[in-house]
Design goal:
The chain is built from four helices and no strands. By secondary structure, it is mainly α.
Length: 117
Amino acid sequence: MGDLGFDEILAIAIVAVLCFGKDLPMVARKVGRVVGKVRRYLMDIKEDVRRQLPMDDFDVARDAAKDAVDVKDPIDEALYHPTSEPPSALAKSDPPPAAEVKPPETGGATAPPSPPA
């Protein structure tokens, strides 16, 4: 599309002047807007494709790494295969010993003294 020579551009200009006459500036403005919109649309598509390509490469690398090392994702395991057992790190540690609570000594009294009325 960029291979237009001087002769072709001159022929297009002469045909445009003959066809549109006084309306040529308005038509050229509209054509310019349409061409600009098409270019922006194509640039957006190119950017989307460029953004997607690195992600595709990342997905391929991630899948290759998972195949090389068979590691289970602990979050997926917890969400999709829950067990009643705590995680292994918590299961190995012993809980701290509970403090021993002694009942208060009453000195043989069975009921507290009643307040004066």
